[in-house]
Amino acid sequence: MSKKGGSRHMVRMRADKRLGVIQRKKVKWLLASAPGPHKKKDSISTGVLIRDVLGLSRNLHEAKKILNSGGFLVDGRNIKDVKFPIGLMDVLSLPLEKKSYRISLKGPDMVPKVISAEAAGSKYLKVVGKQTIRGGKISLTFHDGRNYLGDKHISTGDTCVLSVPDFKLLSHIKLEPGAQCLVTEGKHRGDIARLEKMIERPGSHEPEALLKGLAGEFVTVAKYLFAVDSNYS
Predict the structure, then answer these.
(1) Cβ(152)–Cβ(158) under 8 Å?
(2) Non-local CB neighbours of 140 within 8 Å, separated by 6+ positions
(3) Is the distance from CB of 160 to CB of 154 less than 8 angstroms?
């Protein structure tokens, strides 16, 4: 009988180096992320994050104890599964340690950045899809797979800042010239720069964007941009 479903583990050495996995040569296997809000290649499992990145446990058994005690929240929700995928902009809260993190980028690496309790009350969500549904309502799809009823003024590529954990719209950041953007892919991954202008390319070529950062101007693919505001950290 053939095996069904994805593999529960991946070879640690083959894990994307951008995910912050340590001891790549010491242990062969790494707990893979389960299907969920983030793609496997763009996420790290909760158990690996707790054990190998945050250093809160020595093994997965201890990581499970932390989860079962309600000591680990993602976007304000209790997570019990060590395979739950954690990805960009997720808000992590550890009530017992009184610490909060936002999954961000430090250069090309995806890392948990310490944030204040106030900052942990909101999440940045990039709009990756928009469609009109029954009743003429506008349905938005965010980068973490979440769907949300928005309005016609919000466009694909924009960013919505929603409250955590009730997910009410706090603000809307348009992807337009003057916007501060985090570059999420390519050789400028992790850079924060100001969007100068969009560049349309002929044929089937991806639209590009001209940005200006600390090191000067550069061009990248427009879909790599994640608009943020001055509160982003």
Answers:
(1) no
(2) 127, 129, 130, 147, 148, 149, 150, 154, 160
(3) yes
pTM above 0.85, yes or no: yes
pLDDT tens, residue by residue, 23-69: 444 444 478 888 889 888 889 999 999 998 999 999 999 999 999 99
Spatial separation of the C-alpha atoms in residues 105 and 193, rounded to whole Å: 13
Round to whole Å and give the CA distance between 164 and 74: 9
**What gap in Å lies between CA 214 and CA 226, rounded to an integer?**
17
Contacts of 40 (CB under 8 A, 6+ apart): 6, 32, 33, 85
Q: What CA–CA distance (Å, rounded) separates 48 from 7? A: 15
For the chain, domains (ranges, CATH) are 9-87 (3.10.290.10), 121-173 (2.40.50.740), 180-228 (2.30.30.30)
